[in-house]
Amino acid sequence: MTDETGPWLVAGLGNPGREYAGNRHNVGFMVAELLAVRLGGRFGRYKRVVADVAEGRIGFGGPKLVLLKPQTYMNLSGGPVAALAQFHKIPADRVIAVHDELDLPYGQLRVKLGGGEGGHNGLRSMSKSLGTKEYARVRFGIGRPPGRQDPADYVLSDFGTAERKELEFLVDRAADMVESVITKGVEPTQNAYHGA
């Protein structure tokens, strides 16, 4: 770990615009929005980096978080993330991406450090712009599309009725996991949440 008092950057991945708000691809935005509420922050447009940004601290005097929702569309997410990291002098090992994950069944949440992007355009863009894959990810399982539905169409569709019943709880739990990575580290978070 680097400087223990430095800020953390949490990138909730998604697509801007009201028509995408309820999409499976936008769970990263949902988690970032909940974290902003918890921290008492409010998202505002950050023109320089084409992103909505909120800032706050976990608890009283706790770690500072810079939350962002890129407004560039998913496949260009990396530009705003890297620009904001550079502006705040945040190294990649203090960056967390929150994203949807086709390779996990719906409702499964996982944390990992580094690794591949699994065909996720937002992660691919982040890795390229940051110049490394060594950042933490909170992976929100959305499952595979039913039948022969194209994965590209599936991720841009809204959660189903049954899924929405659990969505609030899962977003809340994903936000807990982000806070745990920041306050405890990746491995302790994996140990605490992966068995559950």
Automatic annotation (TrEMBL):
GO biological process: protein quality control for misfolded or incompletely synthesized proteins; rescue of stalled ribosome
Keyword Cytoplasm found: yes
Residues with site note (Stabilizes the basic form of H active site to accept a proton): 100
Enzyme Commission number, as recorded: 3.1.1.29
Feature type site, description Discriminates between blocked and unblocked aminoacyl-tRNA: 15
Residues annotated to bind tRNA: 20, 73, 75, 121
GO-annotated molecular function: peptidyl-tRNA hydrolase activity; tRNA binding
Pfam families cross-referenced by the UniProt entry: Pept_tRNA_hydro
Keyword set, alphabetical order: Cytoplasm, Hydrolase, RNA-binding, tRNA-binding
Keyword Transferase attributed: no
Functional description taken from the UniProt entry: Catalyzes the release of premature peptidyl moieties from peptidyl-tRNA molecules trapped in stalled 50S ribosomal subunits, and thus maintains levels of free tRNAs and 50S ribosomes.
Family membership: Belongs to the PTH family.
The protein's name in its UniProt record: Peptidyl-tRNA hydrolase
UniProt lineage: Bacteria, Bacillati, Actinomycetota, Actinomycetes, Micromonosporales
